[in-house]
Amino acid sequence: MATFPINSILFLDIETVPQFPDYGQLPGEWKHLWDLKSNSLIKYHEGESNESLYPRAGIYAEFGKIICISCGVAQGAGEQRKITIKSFAGDDEKILLVQFAEMLNKWSAGEQKFLCAHNGKEFDFPYLCRRMIVHNISIPSLLNISGKKPWEVSHLDTLELWKFGDFKSFTSLNLLAFTLGVPTPKDDIDGSMVWKVYWEEKNIQRIVTYCQKDVVTVAQILLRMNGEPLIKEANIEIKS
User: How many CA atoms lie within 13 A of 98 on its CB side?
Assistant: First the structure.
């Protein structure tokens, strides 16, 4: 497979939650719209209801919001390669999106740069764009694919790369990492628990840590696919 310029890639992952703590706190029109949406999902989830499905609302940009964007940039090469991780997180989605957009515009100026996420083309990238539009934030050029030809889009997706043109199944980040022998930390939460940790435990730092580890895993997977050495744990820097 083609190799990619690792040091010109911004690896990222986002964490999202429903906009309201639970179904009972949905305002009238939002509740009506969620019922319409979830009615189309119930047929695939036997025994579920509009209310029990509400924790899944966070995966839809119309009903959810972003609470964390973690990014990673690599430097150096071979055994000496390092990666720096920075997160934008908080309760105010607009603030973190503005900060992320400013960083992305500054980082991507000049030579060609790339974005990379696992399932990024289906989830992370469009979700970011939709929520920026909601908040009247200009979408950074590197993120925005509107009007661009396919070869002008600098988006990489480890899920898509692993498929090699096969669209029959979804491979999770953890499964792909395990398959390729990429070490992943044993976390106490997974994606399905983020809404509860955020709304009930109110522990956003726990979510940030989880998100940052996923960014490192995405970078390690692409390195593995590139046939390059993995980044050593000692060379992973978390920037505040």
Answer: 7
Q: How confident is the model at residue 18 (pLDDT cuts 50, 70, 90)?
A: very high
- Give pLDDT tens digits for 54-103: 999 999 999 999 999 999 999 999 999 999 999 999 999 999 999 999 99
User: How crowded is residue 210: how many other Cβ atoms within 10 Å of its Cβ?
Assistant: 22
SS3 state at 89: strand
Nearest to 67 by CA among 204, 199, 173, 214: 204
What gap in Å lies between CA 180 and CA 132, rounded to an integer?
Answer: 35
Element (H, E) at 173: helix 173-179
- CA gap 99, 94 in Å, rounded: 9
Residue 188 has pLDDT above 80, yes or no: no
| Distance between CA atoms of residues 139 and 154, nearest Å | 15
Secondary element (H or E) of residue 74? strand 64-75
pLDDT in tens, 99-148: 999 999 999 998 899 999 999 999 999 999 999 999 999 999 999 988 88
17 touches 63 (CB < 8 A) = no
Alpha carbon distance 72, 215 (integer Å): 6
Chain centre distance of CA 189: 16
* Cα separation values, 65 from 106, 182, 183, Å: 24, 30, 30
Token pair recorded at residue 170:
């979804």
CB count within 10 Å of CB 183 equals: 12
